[in-house]
């Protein structure tokens, strides 16, 4: 594990990736979406595409438990139900 951590910290452009993640998180906080629209083009320029997708997936897995409880409280369940039904069809 220490080798993997050392390799991750030695990633060229790590500062820029952290800055991009911060900006993408702020956009998601204000709009509720858009993380991938900001993160993926910039991350793909600095990382290989599979690694960039994996990083975004991990970021989303960490963020979801923070977002979902409030969304469940504030959601209009009837409208969401109609949308889910339409999506299933």
Short description:
With 89 residues, the protein is mainly α.
What is the C-alpha radius of gyration, as a whole number of Å?
A: 17 Å
Mean pLDDT score = 88
Biggest sheet, open or closed, and with what strands and sense? none
Spans with pLDDT under 50 lasting ≥5 residues? none
Q: How much helical structure, as a percent, in the residues?
A: over 70%
**Shape assignment:** elongated
Return the structural class: mainly alpha
Q: How much beta, percentage-wise? A: under 5%
Order of helices and strands: HHHHH
Tally of alpha and pi helices: 5
First-residue to last-residue Cα separation: 46 Å
Strand segment count: 0
Q: Can you walk through the features of this model?
A:
This protein is mainly alpha-helical and 89 residues long. The chain contains 5 helices and no strands. The protein has helices at 2-9, 14-31, 35-46, 49-74, 77-88. Helix 2 packs antiparallel against helix 3 (35-46) and helix 3 packs antiparallel against helix 4 (49-74). The protein is elongated, with a radius of gyration of 17 Å. The protein starts with a helix and ends with a helix. The model has no long low-confidence stretch (mean pLDDT 88).
């Amino acid at each position: 594990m220490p080798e993997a951590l050392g390799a991750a910290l030695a990633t060229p452009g790590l500062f820029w990736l952290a800055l991009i993640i911060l900006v993408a998180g702020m956009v998601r906080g204000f709009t509720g979406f858009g993380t991938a629209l900001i993160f993926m083009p910039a991350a793909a320029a600095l990382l290989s595409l599979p690694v960039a997708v994996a990083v975004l997936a991990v970021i989303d897995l960490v963020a979801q438990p923070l977002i979902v409880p409030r969304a469940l409280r504030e959601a209009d369940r009837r409208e969401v139900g109609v949308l889910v039904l339409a999506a299933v069809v």
